[in-house]
Specification:
- The complex is a heterotrimer of chains A (411), B (322) and C (345).
- By secondary structure, chain A is an alpha+beta fold.
- Chain A has 10 helices and 19 strands.
- Chain A folds into 3 domains: 122 residues, Beta Barrel (OB fold (Dihydrolipoamide Acetyltransferase, E2P)); 48 residues, no CATH class; 195 residues, Chloramphenicol Acetyltransferase (2-Layer Sandwich).
- The N and C termini of chain A lie far apart (113 Å).
- Chain C is an alpha/beta fold and 345 residues long.
- In chain C, 39% of the residues lie in helices and 9% in strands.
- In chain C, the strands form 2 sheets. Chain C has a 5-stranded parallel beta sheet with strand order 1-2-3-7-6, with helices on both faces. A two-stranded antiparallel ribbon of chain C has the order 4-5.
- Classes of the chains: A alpha+beta (411), B alpha/beta (322), C alpha/beta (345).
- The interface between B and C is large, with 50 and 46 residues.
Chain lengths: 411, 322, 345
Amino acid sequence: MPSVPILMPQLGESIAEATILRLEIAPGDRVETDHEVIEVETNKATMGVTTLCCGEVIEILAKEGETYPVGSVLALLEVDEAEIKRTGVSTVEEHMAEEGDDQPAGSDAEEENLHFKVDDDAYREPKVIEPNVKGLPVPAGRAGAHYISPRMRARMNDLGLQAADISAIVGSGAGGRVTVEDLEKFLDYIDTWPRSNASPMRMGVADSMRRSWTRPLASVGHPLVMDKLLHHRKSLASKPGPTLYVLRAFAIAIAENPAVAGYLIGDKIVHPRAIDIGVAVQVEDGVLVPILRSLDTKKLADLAAEYADLVKQARNRRLADEATRGGIATVTNFGTFGLTWGTPIPLPNETLILGLSAGVKKPVWSEDVQAFVPVTEAELALTFDHRVVDGGGAGMLLNRVVQLLQRPEDL
Amino acid sequence: MDFSYIDAIHAALNDSLRDDDRVFLYGQDIGKFGGAFKATKGLQDLYPGRVLDAPISEDAMAGVAMGAALEGMRPVLEMQFADFSTIALNQIVNHAATHFYRTGVPVPMTVRLPSGGTPGSGPFHSQSLEAIYASFPGLVVVTPATVADAYQMLVESIQLEDPVIFCEHKFLYRWLKSSTLQGDGLPIGKARITRAGKHATVVTYSAMVHEAVRAAEMLYDEGGWEIEVVDLRSIKPIDTDTVIASVARTGRLLAVGEAFPWGGVTAEIVSRVAADAFHLLDAPPARLNARDTPIPYHPKLWADHRPTPQTIAASLRNLLKY
Amino acid sequence: MIPLVPVTREDRIDRNDLSGVREDLPRIYLAMLRARVLEDKLSSLYKAGKIVGGVYLGRGHEAVSGSLASYLHRGIDIFAPLIRDQAGRTAFGESLMDVTRTYLGSVEGPMKGRDGNIHRGRPQEGMPAMISHLGSSVALVAGMLMARRMQGRLEGVVGATSLGDGATSTGAFHEGLNTAAVEKLPMVVLVVNNQFAYSTGNDRQFACADLVDRARGYGVAGHKVQGNDLIAVAETMKKAVSAARDGGGPQLVVADLLRLCGHGEHDDASYVPAEMRASGLARDCMQVAEGQLIDAGVFSRSQLDEMRAQAVAEVQSAVAQTQQESAPHPHHDDWRTMYHGELEE
């Protein structure tokens, strides 16, 4: 015959347990429906626990004087099927199953995962918000490893830090995010290292290079045989340097196809207004870039004085602000430091920079004399914003510069 | 001819009584006297037996309205001042508001709360209690800011099957005028962009809509700032979608309310935007409310107690600095 | 539970003249009996751990509550019961299954598990679902009657509500009764003074000599009756209901008795003093009624026993059926709080 439990009832809204005062039943006793068989005491009152059906007591689990939580099985009755049907009471098995229903943390693994269980209409679709932003930019992403929280951003602003400054920090936050705690630990750590203050010039270059580096920059190179250029140079009274030849050739090449120096903003390419090209001048603790204006319209011989003047002003840190504004590309002669190879970075507002390396004497096979002859050869390195120009475009530009430099007399 | 906000209320009551036999009005001094604000002037003569004076028993008034609603009527209760509705809070929030959830039987009653401050009205004739009612499930809480909304939303409220707390602003009663009672037909639950802008969003309701528009004009004259003003129209439900769409346009949020600062509508707005639209914000979402004191009697103190165009503009300037 | 004071021959209300209530007694008693048997079962279910929340009984209130509602007509009248009105609810026609389903949390019940125990009703059938805030039913019934007046269907209608001594201390009771009086509504307001509001006795609840004295202050008719005397109660209720129905305005009926149980079944009422337990107030209205019915020749003892056995079987069957029904499921409940779902947040 099935077993039916006698349970500790919930005797009051805030009652979690009760103490057995008196057991009025013993195994073997017959009990009747709705009779009080166990006397219990809560901190509020003394009450009787009832049976809901007729049956025979087969086991007493509770002891007098002991306290049991609400829902505990205090005793078991043996009850026949007809009586269960008449009274609708739950058997021990049914009771345990009901308890499991109430407590998903129980034994049933499927119930434990209730939140992930797909159950016909168990979940409703979240409301879709479609803000009407009429073309204004709305950031699509909300988070990610690169994400800097408003709190972190505020602390970085306090310290004058940029995203690049925290690149050394391994983030411990969600998605690898760098937290304020990570930042403070890192700052404590670098406190133990020797330091010096960065000069305003250094900070200016740093800011400029950091901004430039947000773009996909690529570099290509081409050898330049310099003998004709060097020979031509000697023929001029002003003895212009190789940098000026490169500036002039670069200007002509760009003027033939100005779009190559265009600047990408959103879905627009901003084209050069004039072929104004800068020249990088190394100064103490930094670089200055004076601009030579309308380089495509002036002959080399006429430029030497202007060039020398601008370089001098830069070296003396006397360069007017206007003289550094509005360039569309830059030439840098890193060969003056004996370097034979480099990948220069364009200014953040320019797409192109052309670098010139040191000239090196090399044997080159001459078909004319059927022998190796000595030549002076340098490397031209062009760095470009790959959003605007591709390798092919950059190559054609560089080839054209090399071609122009083989006819220095036309410059 | 111009209609004032109180004319709109009067017209809505009149038209509802005229068009629907189920409608009746119940409240203190609303019969022959026509109500403390004359919202029911002349209606008792026009609709005899359907405009009833009540004893000074707000709890019983709300209980009566609920009982009548259950029996098929459409009671419109006038609380003489919103402040006195606290006496009826139990009948409204525990009895009427829970009824549909508990029994499946709706309670179509409308409770009109003459709300908000006017100079000299003091602590017990000035309060804005919309947030208290909105915090209980089962109620619709509307807060019209325009003459046309006052008319249309009251007519609409009376026809809803659910209990509605209709917060009408006493300052607007005679101060606000319009040439028409016909508005844009926006339903309860939809907010309106009162003024378009792109630099910051002010989300507000009731009389503060007009103060916010003035602040927006000041900032436009001052620096060309274009401030968007969103009129919530109903604060339960809150039209979160329209608020977030506006913040998406502007990136900055100021929630303005005339009620006390602890919790309430402005806190709800900021919390919803912070939770659902954090990634759209360029500045911390801000709120501006009345001071956390009882509402002062003297007009000079009162004027400084609630948000004004000047304080709204100052809060916006802070936001625009980010 | 309060031990019952034995009903002696001397205690019996010995009257040959039943003042025209004789034909009403069988249905009143049947409602009382069904309520008592049902509530005994509810108590048992609670003490066996089957009911969560609480069980609040009307033990001792059966004659008063059952008589009032026996003079009301479901479909015409209004009856707004309170906590101890099972007999009145039964007399007004509440189905047994509405009770067991609400107490046991069946999803089939009128409250669908969203509310429990005594907080149930059928508002569209003239029986509002009470809330716990005492006195709030007075204005509610007044409003229901005012609606019917405006609709031109008040003729012959009575609205009744039931409260206790504690509820008379609320502002809602005062506001509601005053409003009903102002509107001269056909209303019966029953105040059962069962001596205790939870555990607080009359001496800390009110200071007037008798609650019925308040009737004069409100300008309504007052009736006073011993609440465990079925015949006296039936006579009083018949008179009060008729007076209300015939245009006599609100009727305040104050019935004295002792609550023969705790506030709820979690409360053993240990605060009820021994002398009160031994007084005439503590006589059980069921036993008094049975004596009166036998004396008047309305029922024999064996008929009464038969009726009880029948009531027990009906209750047992309702409980058995309800226990097999489903509990509400949080995923299947729509959680709607308003008729206009589109206005839900």
